[in-house]
Design brief:
alpha/beta, extended
């Protein structure tokens, strides 16, 4: 009878520790329910951008990417952003997909415009720049360096 009590206590302790880890992971991941307003942005390429990625303004997180879809008419990637309600973006703001480094993930960097009008819920950021394909840039640099050294004189 006493061994059943010890096993029950140890099992309860394991479940409690697992619950603490899950709570910690949930609160620090930024994946809480969205409480801001939604804005759409159309990009030519969203390589490396994941749902849940940060939306940053001046390096500070102001929102998250909540959805990605393909516009069947223009074949552009439409990204839905959830922006914090305390941040009011001008309607002429621009957005670009930026990498955190060579091996880091991608995020959306927002640059506010100078307009007096503010983006409303369901609005669209008109000025966008898609992600840069790092491998094609490296390939272009390598091939342009080899082509310039083989010129005829």
């Amino acid at each position: 009878m006493q061994s059943n009590l010890v096993e029950t206590l140890i099992g309860t302790l394991v479940v409690a520790v697992a619950a603490v880890f899950l709570f910690y992971g949930y609160t620090t991941s930024g994946m809480r329910s969205a409480a801001g307003y939604r804005v759409n942005a159309a990009f030519s390429s969203v390589d490396g951008l994941a749902t849940g990625a940060d939306v940053r303004l001046s390096g500070i997180k102001i929102g998250t990417v909540v959805r990605q879809s393909l516009d069947p008419e223009t074949y552009q990637a439409v990204v839905t952003l959830d922006i914090a309600p305390s941040v009011k973006l001008p309607d002429d703001s621009s957005a670009k997909i930026t990498s955190e480094g060579l091996l880091g993930g991608s995020y959306i960097s927002v640059t506010p415009g100078g307009s007096e009008d503010i983006l409303a819920d369901g609005g669209e950021i008109m000025f966008t720049q898609g992600s840069v394909d790092l491998m094609s840039l490296i390939g272009q640099a390598v091939f342009s360096a080899t082509d310039s050294g083989t010129g005829d004189k």
